[in-house]
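Issue 218. Parser rejects a valid record. Input:
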Amino acid sequence: MKFQNKSAMGALMAAALALTACGSSGTASSSAAASAKDASGSSDTSAVDTSTADTSKGDASAADGAADTASTKKLQEGNYLGATGATIKSNCGPEFSVVLGNTDLRWVDSTKFTLTSMGPKSVFHCTAGSPTVCDPVEIAVPASPTYTQKLGIVTKDVVVKSSTEFTMILAFTVGCEGASCTSNDNCEIEIESNYTAGGCDVLLSNCSDPATSKCTIVPGEEGQEITTTCKPFLGKAKLGEPCNRPNDVVGEDTCDTGLFCSYYGLSKSTPQQRVCRQMCELESPCPTGTKCFGVNGSQLAGHCAPACTPFVNNCGSPELTCKMLQLVSAVGAFDFTCSWSGSVADFAECTKSEECAPNSHCRQVAGGKALCSPLCDDAHPCADKDAVCLSFTSWTIANFGSCTK
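Output the parser choked on:
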C-alpha cells in the first residue's frame, strides 16, 4: 500500500505496504528551477497484458466458526494482493492517495506466521490469536540527501475472512530526520486494508509449479498498479541472451525464471530485438551499469535496464540516447535509460519520449499538452531564447531539467 503526499515526495515501505508521506522533494541546481509534471513513466512502455493473477495453492484448514481470527481459520501460504478499498484514519493532512501493494505469507508453526513486504524486505513476525499480534517494525529510508523518513508500525489485528482473505489493521507513526524536515513531517495513521491470495513474488518466484511456470510482471486492473502472476515457460533464455514475446504480450516471453524480456538498451529494429534482463523490486540490487526501472510506470516491480547520463553518449550506439523513465522507488523517483529517438521537433506535441529527438523529453506542460522539450542543465542552457529550463522534481535527476516556453 502506498500513501503519497502530492505536495512532497518522501517514502517508506513495510510489510504489505509502501508509504509515501509527509516528505520533502529535492532541489535543482539548474539555472532556472521550477516544477512541472513529467510525461514519461508509463508512456514509455510497451502495451501490457491484461491477464489475471493465478492463485497459489496451500494449506486451508477448516474454521470452527468460534472466532474470525488466524487461530481458527488458517490462511494459506503464498503471495497476497492488496485488494481495492481501505479505511484510513490520519492526521497527516488531506493530500494522500492510496495504492495497495503485495505481501508474502509463510507459516512458521501452527500459531506463528510471517508477512514479508514486496518492497524493502521488511518482515512482520505474527502470532495468531484474538487479536493476532505482530512484533512492531521500525524502518528508516533515505528520501533525499537531506531527508530520511522514519516509520514505526504496530499491528492492531489480522482478521481472517477465509483461508485466502484477511484484513490487516495497522497503526503508523510517521516522522523524519535531516536538514529538510519540518514540523509537519510527524503524524499518525491507522489503516484497515484487505488482502486476497494471488500473484507471486518475482524474486522468490514462488509459483506452485516452478518447473513449468515462472513469476512475471503483468498489469493490474485499469488504472491500478501492475501486479505479478505465474505464466508458463515459453523458453529458458538466460540473462543477457536474446528473447522474444511469441504472443506479443508483456510478461509472456522466452526468458528463464527471474528475467524479463526488454528492448531498453537496444536499437530500434523490425522485428524488435529484445534481451533478458533481471527483474527487480524495491531496493533489490541490479547489475553494475543498470538501475531498476518500472514496468508500465510501476514503483513496485520492474527490470534492470541500462542507466545513462544526458549529453554524454554512453549508451554504446549512436542510435540510442538517454530517455527519462520511472524507477522502482518508494520515493517516486526518475532516472535516465538508453532508448530510441524519434523525429518529432522540439516543442511539438508528443505522446512518449521515444518520439522526440536525442536529448529531448516528452513533458507535460501548462494546459495539459505534452511537448518534446529539450533537456538542459547548467552546462547546456536552452538554445531557444524564449525558453526557460524547468528542473525535474525527482531529486535523483535534480541537476537536469527541460526547456519549456
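Fixed in the parser; the record now loads. The CA atoms of residues 175 and 186 lie 4 Å apart.
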